[in-house]
Design the sequence.
């Protein structure tokens, strides 16, 4: 794993990184080339890992009836905030590794910026997909609201050193989802 990528993941709780790595169909290793080439290979690897994970989650959460699917999809969307609360309650929680790396990277270019932007885009697409699957009338608008809520609750959990912001965010997300699907 390239030095830049390692720096991005330095703040991530080990158990989370291990869970993500376990879903990777092709474990990341030294794939040759110089540091810049390895960083780009790592970025591509992360994108494949995320696509694989998203596809697997979608397949794992399908029900037989439309109502069951909608309930499962609502639970999946709100589950993002449950996971955040779980992470925020852990002893070593230092916030989002991508937010932290982005704040430390002064130029806004290079491998760190690219990985952070890719993660941000993936998170946005995750919320759009979850909102669509949950039946939101305007999935992009709901996803934009959820991104702000997620950002704020992540920072709040980090600053307050408690899961309170994430649990509050889940309640707000449920209200936003109810309004978006009414």
Sequence:
């Amino acid at each position: 794993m390239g030095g830049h990528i390692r720096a991005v993941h330095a703040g991530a709780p080990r158990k989370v990184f291990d869970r993500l790595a376990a879903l990777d169909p092709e474990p990341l290793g030294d794939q040759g080339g110089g540091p810049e080439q390895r960083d780009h290979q790592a970025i591509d690897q992360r994108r494949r890992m995320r696509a694989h994970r998203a596809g697997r989650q979608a397949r794992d959460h399908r029900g037989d009836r439309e109502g069951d699917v909608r309930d499962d999809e609502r639970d999946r969307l709100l589950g993002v905030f449950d996971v955040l609360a779980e992470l925020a309650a852990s002893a070593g929680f230092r916030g989002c590794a991508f937010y932290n790396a982005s704040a430390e990277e002064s130029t806004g270019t290079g491998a760190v910026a690219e990985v952070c932007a890719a993660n941000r885009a993936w998170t946005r697409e995750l919320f759009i997909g979850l909102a669509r699957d949950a039946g939101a009338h305007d999935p992009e608008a709901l996803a934009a609201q959820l991104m702000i809520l997620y950002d704020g609750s992540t920072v709040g959990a980090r600053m307050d050193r408690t899961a309170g912001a994430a649990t509050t965010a889940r309640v707000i997300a449920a209200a936003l989802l109810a309004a978006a699907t009414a």
